[in-house]
Amino acid sequence: SYTTDTKSREENKKTLENLYSLSVDITKIRRLKEWVLLQDVAYVKEIAGILQEMGADESTVANIIERCPEAILHTPAEINSQRALWQLVCQNEKQLIKLIEQFPESFFTTEYQQNQKANILFFQELGLKNNIITRFLTGAPNIFYNPVEKNKNVIETLQRNYLNLGGSEANMKIWILKLLSQNPFILLNTSTAIQENLEFLQKNDFTDQEVLQLLSKLKGFIFQLNSTTMQKSMLFSKNIFKCSDQELKQLVLKCPALLYYSVPVLEERLEGLLKEGISIAQIRETPMVLELTTQIVRYRIKKLSALGYDIKSGNLESLNGTKKDFEVTYGKIQSKKERPIFNPVAPLHIED
């Protein structure tokens, strides 16, 4: 075990010599994690050797050690078993060394090897592609530190609910894989949270079919909800749109954001829209505009009015969607505006 106390100790001469011989910038290490240089035991040559065996050149090895100095405190055995583990999902050592260079911290966290291995196998069984699993290993490494039972529990709760609500086995599989690929951090939640949120929706008279629809649309948001926020947000929407419970349900199904945004957020967005001269009736017609921040709404309205498009009189569909969706809509309106009306009998001007 090593100590991070840097006061009373001296830097390990042998470690320094070995690092120098690899052209590692030691000032970087002093700045970042000086305590690494004070440890009695370090495996500089061995770790460098393993990295070189995988195809890393000298500058890559130096770069990895500079970015993650504690790499040299791991035993060769630990690093070799980590290498074997990551090879379960990497195409080859070339890809592996590239990943280690980009994400050294993820690779050199070796305390959870049993859990990591069990989780990798579980994700493969679920049908996740290896390139997605490597993305998890580098970008969301903490989901592998969970015991596999915990991750299984969250996934099984989702599967069970999806099927109980009348979803098909085939759709469920696709949905789970999509959900995980988009947001692996859902695994850090508890299965009780999902259960409570779904029960809240059922208590509020959403049919199984409708809850299933929401579950599909909400994706990872189902975890971020809680019944108190949902209750308040629904009440707020009901008062603003002056609608019956049945109408409110239809609005929520159209725009699940009405469930997961808190009242202050909804209030601010609504105010932003009203300031632009948009009416409550228009928003009720196209509630999805509430998914956009006030800043985005302003920018889009400005671009559309420059084309002579009056948002106050039209519907709000043209404001909606992702950046890409909006660009397509904008392009269509623009080309309509620019297209000259062709007069078949007008003389053609031909340059001599």
TrEMBL record:
One of its GO terms (biological process) is termination of mitochondrial transcription. Keywords: Mitochondrion, Transcription, Transcription regulation, Transit peptide. It comes from the Eukaryota. GO terms for molecular function: nucleic acid binding. One of its GO terms (cellular component) is mitochondrial matrix. InterPro entries: MTERF, MTERF_sf. It is found in: Mitochondrion. Its main location: mitochondrion. SMART domains: Mterf. The keyword Transcription applies. Belongs to the mTERF family. PANTHER family: TRANSCRIPTION TERMINATION FACTOR 2, MITOCHONDRIAL (PTHR15437:SF1), TRANSCRIPTION TERMINATION FACTOR, MITOCHONDRIAL (PTHR15437). Monomer. This is MTEF2 factor.
